Amino acid sequence: MAEPQTVPVDVLEDRVRKIFEKSGVRPESAAAVAHVIVAGERDNCKSHGIYRIEGCLRVLAAGKVEPDAVPEIFDQGKSVIEVDAKGGFSNPAFFAAKDTLVKRAHETGIAALVIRDCLHFSALWHDVETLAEDGLAALSMCPSYAFVAPAGGTKPLLGTNPFAFGWPRVDGHPYVFDFATSVAARGEIELHRRAGTPIPEGWAIDKDGNPTTDPDAALEGAMLTFGAHKGSAISTMIELLSGAMLGEFMSKEALDFMGRTDLLPRHGALVLALDPQTFAARSGRDPLAEGEKILTAIGAQGARLPSQRRFQARDKAMVNGIALTDSELAQLDRFEAQGLDALNG
Amino acid sequence: MAEPQTVPVDVLEDRVRKIFEKSGVRPESAAAVAHVIVAGERDNCKSHGIYRIEGCLRVLAAGKVEPDAVPEIFDQGKSVIEVDAKGGFSNPAFFAAKDTLVKRAHETGIAALVIRDCLHFSALWHDVETLAEDGLAALSMCPSYAFVAPAGGTKPLLGTNPFAFGWPRVDGHPYVFDFATSVAARGEIELHRRAGTPIPEGWAIDKDGNPTTDPDAALEGAMLTFGAHKGSAISTMIELLSGAMLGEFMSKEALDFMGRTDLLPRHGALVLALDPQTFAARSGRDPLAEGEKILTAIGAQGARLPSQRRFQARDKAMVNGIALTDSELAQLDRFEAQGLDALNG
């Protein structure tokens, strides 16, 4: 078997953009989607890297995402900005509204971005990191598919509901976390199923609500939240704030709408941006210098900050390029030549 | 032993108010503190009920809280409102600024309240619940004392950092959660120490960073966060957003400032208020009716919503009064007659 080849980040981004254009996505949206997918690959975050291309092409082929959607911004000059993705991918909508969100957060101290009606496949860390690079603290959350039971419950109702936070650092990469509020990802249970190994206790319950370590029973039953009732409460908050509050789908409705679980979900998302300089102004302290104190102290204990491995992979990829296997490169060739037709190959 | 006596809620609130006035607290502040303490007792939330009176009197006696502080509001008409508690209790500061926060959130969709330099002893649920009663979704968080190690760390750095959320419901009590981001409360470890029983695994590490079930070793070492690295990330976020971002103490500095652990901490707090009607307006959906769907579905699974037991206790107390033991009543008598002098008795 050949050694993995390395591809420069910008070259890979260009290839992925062409794949989406070939698949009928309008150029601006193709560029946004390619940027975020390659950011995942660059960070060695393989579950959100080029692996996602096929899933995106499948929703395009199924007609469940609008390839021509032009995001529309609604801004009444207040602290809530809305962008309607109009059934398109979430990323072009975020990029379209980002500058307005940043400007407003700096003006008023805190601003919210509502993303409506988007096909959501990407990790949230990209959005909060982008805002942190503009000097803002940011929170982001969204529903997903109803695969998770609430604490004390027996049936799927909540999504794996990711929760992300970003904080600007004085030097180098921001403090960023982004995690599912389920104890594990659904894909991890699937991997155990294929390997014929039991899943750890505490990951899931069967269809009758009993604890199970059998991956088949877990997939028929429900996953559990991290942190028992506390994680369940946070996951419920995410359904309320980024589903009900926006008048967008919660995880159960997202699943009902798509009617199948093998396509990426369509729903909304909520992003909050806070300007530390506004919040700290009256204190006379520098909020970012203050933040460094605790972040440095965490590192001094030998503890790892979230996203640290991702940033290390990124720094390496920016210099050396991204290592891809022959089979990954062959798939890119096929997608680039055939677009959606490659799915039938 | 005599049966517990029941005291009407308003009668108890009046007694507690008099205790704080007798102890030198200005009348408006005494009323605010009494209201929140009796709300805890009413909800059978004993750890934040009249048990707290003695702790509050001790910080007054130690001169570590300003009894005469008049909260000052700074409002520039933007989305961040500040109230300086001026070293007084947090509750009068929150009550002083609450109406401005509510008004601003309704006007702009989202608003933040910064509470500066307050003595903080109360649960956060009271604040988010109050805002939910005005139709707002609300988040609240604050640091505390550095008793908790970050995930992968060995030394205390984070506080038990509570995180609270409120969501208005169409009928009846709001959806409210409020929990420490440590896996257990420090008081629970103390109870094990007194009883001579081991603490559960996963609660704490000893001073060398090794897991321990010995309560003495745990109290000398560090507590752990709920939900492993995810809970640790959330606790760090709370340090950044409600400490560093406000230019107020983080948990380590709060502990250094007070110089001892038996007094309640002084720091800031952050409250976010979001108006669901503003966020949902363009969707044509009723956000509160949407929220009912998931909250009802959780209940239909037989799962308990957070705060449910508290609301049941409240409903009962509002009709029957609050049951207090002879020794609790005797302590109230003593505090009421002697104020701070009762501490020397």
Automatic annotation (TrEMBL), chains A, B:
List, alphabetically, the InterPro entries matched: Mal/L-sulf/L-lact_DH-like_ah, Mal/L-sulf/L-lact_DH-like_NADP, Mal/L-sulfo/L-lacto_DH-like_sf, Malate/L-lactate_DH-like
Query: So where does this one cross the membrane?
Result: none
Q: Give the source species.
A: Qingshengfaniella alkalisoli
Which taxonomic lineage does the organism of this UniProt entry have? Bacteria, Pseudomonadati, Pseudomonadota, Alphaproteobacteria, Rhodobacterales
Q: Keywords of this protein's UniProt record, alphabetized?
A: Oxidoreductase, Plasmid
What is the recorded name of this protein? Ldh family oxidoreductase
An example molecular function term from Gene Ontology annotations: oxidoreductase activity
Q: What family name appears in the similarity comment? A: Belongs to the LDH2/MDH2 oxidoreductase family.
| One of the Pfam families matching this protein, by short name | Ldh_2
